[in-house]
Amino acid sequence: MSAQQHQDGIILDVVEALAEADRLDLEEVEYTxxxxxxxxxxxxxxxxxxxxWEFTFEVADHEVTIxxxxxxxxxxxxxxxxxxxxxxxxxxAYS
Length: 95
Fold this sequence. Notes:
Radius of gyration: 14 Å
Distance between the termini: 15 Å
Strand content: 15-25%
Largest sheet: 4 strands, antiparallel
Helix content: 25-40%
Number of helices: 2
Order of helices and strands: HHEEEE
Structural class: alpha+beta
Oligomer: single chain
Number of strands: 4
Strand order of the largest sheet: 1-2-3-4
C-alpha cells in the first residue's frame, strides 16, 4: 500500500462514517473533509508508531475522534475499530 493509498483509506473511513451518521450515501455528502481539516494530520498521526494518542476535530455538525488503536468515533459513537493506523509500511519486505 502506498502512502497516498494509506492516507486516502483513512480519509475514506472518516467520510463514510460521517455519511452513515447523516444517513446519506457517500456521494450525497455535500462537503469535503478538506474544508475542515488538513487530512495530512491524520497520516502523520497514523505514522507515529509506539505512542498513544487521541485526535478530535469538528466536521460539519459532528465531532470526530480517532485513536491510536484504530478506533473511529462520530459524536461519541464507535463507528470503526479497524482503521489502518500504525500498520503502514513504506518499504518492501524483500529489500
